[in-house]
Amino acid sequence: MQNPFLTPTVLIPWSRLTSDRVLEAVQEGVRLGEKALAEIAALPPAARGVESVLMAFERATEPLDFAWNLINHLDGVDNSPALRDAIREALPLVSGFYARVRLDARLWEALRWVAESPEGQALTGVRRRFMDETLADFRESGADLPDEGKRRLEALEGELASITQTFSENVLDAMNQVELLIDDPARLDGLPESARAAALALARAKGLGTPTLPVWRFTLHMPSYLPVMKFSADEPLRRTLWEAMGAVGGVAPHDNTPLIGQILRLRHEKATLLGAAHFPDHILNRRMARRGEVALGFVNRLHERVKGAFVADVAELAAFKAELLNQPGVALQPWDVTYYSERLRQARYELDEEALRPYFPLDGVLNGLFALVERLFGLTVTPRETCCPRAGGPQVLGAIETWHPEVRYFELHDQRGRLLGAFYTDWHPRESKQGGAWMASLYTAEATSPGQRGPHVGLIAGNLTAPTDGGPALLTHREVETVAHELGHLLHHLTSDVEVRSFSGANVAWDFVELPSQIMENWCWQRASLDLIARHHETGEPLPQPLFDRLVAAHNFQAGINFMAQLAHGKLDLELHLGGRDWSPEELDLRLRELLDGWRVPTQTDAGFIVRRFTHLFAHPTGYASAYYSYKWAEVLDADAFTRFRDEGVLSPVVGREYLERVLSRGNSAPPEQLFRDFMGRDPDPDALLRRCGLSV
Ligand SMILES: [Zn+2]
Hints:
Elements: H1 22-42, H2 50-60, H3 62-77, H4 81-101, H5 105-116, H6 118-121, H7 125-140, H8 147-177, E1 180-182, H9 193-205, E2 216-218, H10 222-231, H11 235-247, H12 257-273, H13 279-284, H14 292-325, H15 337-349, H16 353-356, H17 362-377, E3 380-384, E4 386-387, E5 400-401, E6 408-413, E7 419-426, E8 438-443, E9 456-461, H18 477-494, H19 515-521, H20 527-533, H21 545-555, H22 559-579, H23 588-595, H24 615-618, H25 630-648, H26 653-662, H27 672-680, H28 687-692
Parallel strand pairs: 4-5, 7-9
Antiparallel strand pairs: 1-2, 3-6, 6-7, 8-9
The site of zinc ion has 4 residues, from helix 18.
């Protein structure tokens, strides 16, 4: 029987996707890919054309792409030791295969031949874009380099992979070494019940404490660390954990300081070998920012605009601490900032996030968001019956198979009744599931002609508050935003009408991909749309106006400090990758202090820098390196694009349809700046974000 991982299909047979078929699927997928690519490379010039070379190249790796995607999906939602072993065994085959493709000289020669042929030169639209981008991909991977250059590039990649892996392990090991044990309940003052229970569970998992003599254990992992920084009234407790965090990556045997310079120099050499002036230019060449200086200019300009509000926020926070402690002139400490921010927020807005939960039962939130999607885009969402033989349940005729009994399945139709796609939802934590929230595509249909295609398939998943005691899952407002965010990514995938499969949906430039997701969060803050989403789970009442007012008022609380924290990360990233390779390990902090003067909350004890544990930048050969600014960049786009809804109607179907046609359904078929202009009629306005955050003067 055909390996079930290898057959791209809409109705995925989850019960047959077992760990023992993984390695075989990957081996066969690699074999099929190699065979297809070899056939393209072997074509005589007379047989070379757009279909036989370019589009055949697009399809060559389809079975492997599909299988590997499914395998990684299962790793995220139904992890097991057997699956992990299978993946570990298959991984080198897959990465080796994909790395070889772009260094295949004969394939490269065939692609260039077609690009230069009259047929290639006559291409327009998405196929033209696909051809140009494919050539650029090959060039950026070193296809044009002489043999000596290719060898050097390969060596650089190898070194980068190994040093960034060490950086990542150092951070992980250093963090895992830290634990703080508390046996005096008085020291838990201020911590919410959920954080106490988690600390108790962390201790029990280590065999510490008894029901009569409990022990609370805290670590540097975010779910443990953040509540302490935010809520703990015990200053020494906050300080101890903060100092432990500050030491991560900076102390032998896990010292990352020398690795930073090495990574920066390797990246610079790689960029210059491939013809760029420096690493940011190499990375951003095909993103919206295009060049490192543009990204840095973006960050610097926002800093100028925000610094006034930032200074005012800091002064307010310091004054609040002094007043609360009755110590005039007392300075802020780095372990104070999050804590006093939260205290000030509570004092000012009396916003109890727990009081909002009854208005956000998960099913009600989903139905509300689906109603919103129908109003705006004319798309209807219909649930289908599911079954889960994978977990031992019966196969039900006509029901859709899922990977877990909690998973649900929906179909998405447009106004004409065309089935655009289908999706799974998987919302609550379990041990076999990774953390966070995400959207993934499982299947992308190929368009046979414009507007003619089968359904795409995707999923949205998260780790939201679980139902308790037979009641519904009641979400926080932040969790509602998360659901809306992932739904935005999902719509990007499912509504995509792009002729080239790999240019479909969310396969767009990194600094553009969060526009369709982040824009959806805006509807969680508008009365008209929130009334669709928020209904009391027992009474069906909408959110009371005073509660809504406090929610909105608290939204931009200390926006200056929060905005600046993200900008400072973006600035640090770009400055390091532009000039940091020449700094000695000894001068690293000194240089950063100079560059980030005016970007950090002034504190009595110097707050230090995240750089030695900044895994976004240094835990992968590329990762977010030179791209941390993208978070703010995409926020500018979504804040600006949403102004059309704000001004022309929050629930306007006219604007909704335009957004669907001009941005959402077009994937990567045109440059992102063009999609934006097609919808807005102009280039992005950076002030839109400042206005939304209440920071524009
Ligand atoms: Zn996202």
